[in-house]
Amino acid sequence: MSTMFADTLLIVFISVCTALLAEGITWVLVYRTDKYKRLKAEVEKQSKKLEKKKETITESAGRQQKKKIERQEEKLKNNNRDLSMVRMKSMFAIGFCFTALMGMFNSIFDGRVVAKLPFTPLSYIQGLSHRNLLGEDYTDCSFIFLYILCTMSIRQNIQKMLGLAPSRAATKQAGGFLGPPNPAGKFS
Amino acid sequence: MSGGRRKEEPPQPHLANGAPKSSAWSKALRSDAAWEDKDEFLDVIYWFRQIIAVVLGVIWGVVPLKGFVGIAVFCLINAGILYLYFSSFQQIDEEDYGGTWELTKEGFMTSFALFMVVWIIFYTAIHYD
């Protein structure tokens, strides 16, 4: 096995480990707490209820019905905000951890071609895919590009497999506030 | 892809937005199955997309199929196969799920990233190792 392919596999392995580490940290700080479990159950129940109500409401629905929905939306928004605040603790811890890890990995893989891309990336992607690499061959892949792709695919799938991804109804209703919790953060 | 009579099934417990239970997979392989739990069907769509991404990534890396043609063909096949699956094989009403676009979007970006990773790995392993 060549050094380059060994690096490719190593980066996939690092990505799996960091995804599991991120979920582990989040589990310790957030998922296992009663507050989070309670809030999550509440948000999912409210989201589903609200979605069902919105589906059945008609144009001629009374002002009272519409006001009721608005109140429920407001309540849901507040719960989503509280949920996001609870998750923020783990986000800081993960951010701190991963900044240190990324610094370490970047220096280890600095200047190393870790894979060959079967396509030539667009020029604005080359800044990432060819980062800190010598030469003009833009099919050379840098650590950070492969790591980002791995994280985008692996972390989301791990969350879904472990049942830790938020429900779709909750994600949809949370869209207006901080945005849905992003399980596939590029640098975590 | 026969249009058999829709069978009524008791609702199965399902982990919302997670891995579908085995009963969901047996329904997924049956034409025109009844899906009381919409999240369950969306999860099936999601995981089918990931499987397609892995399979196409391996094929594209081995052949090899290179360039943006590879990416474009992947997108077409991924969207096309799933479209045929939910519209012809399962014969679901797209409006129940927010329209064809919502079904097409489900899990697409993650499957695209997964396809890229697998494609790169196999291409590097077979053609540059």
From TrEMBL, chain A:
InterPro entries: EMC3/TMCO1, TMCO1. It holds the Pfam family EMC3_TMCO1. One of its GO terms (biological process) is endoplasmic reticulum calcium ion homeostasis. The chain crosses the membrane at residues 6-30, 91-109. One of its GO terms (cellular component) is cytoplasm. Its main location: endoplasmic reticulum. Homodimer and homotetramer. Homodimer under resting conditions; forms homotetramers following and ER calcium overload. Endoplasmic reticulum (ER) calcium-selective channel preventing intracellular Ca2(+) stores from overfilling and maintaining calcium homeostasis in the ER. In response to endoplasmic reticulum (ER) Ca2(+) overloading, assembles into a homotetramer, forming a functional calcium-selective channel facilitating Ca2(+) release. Mediates ER Ca2(+) homeostasis in osteoblasts and plays a key role in bone formation, via the CaMKII-HDAC4-RUNX2 signaling axis. Component of the multi-pass translocon (MPT) complex that mediates insertion of multi-pass membrane proteins into the lipid bilayer of membranes. This is Calcium load-activated calcium channel. It comes from Monodelphis domestica. The gene is TMCO1.
UniProtKB/TrEMBL annotation, chain B:
The keyword Ribosomal protein does not apply. It is found in: Endoplasmic reticulum membrane. Residues 1-11 have a biased composition (Basic and acidic residues). The chain crosses the membrane at residues 44-62, 68-86, 107-126. One of its GO terms (biological process) is mitochondrial respirasome assembly. Belongs to the EMC6 family. GO terms for cellular component: endoplasmic reticulum membrane; mitochondrion. It is a multi-pass membrane protein. This is RAB5 interacting factor. It comes from Monodelphis domestica (Gray short-tailed opossum).
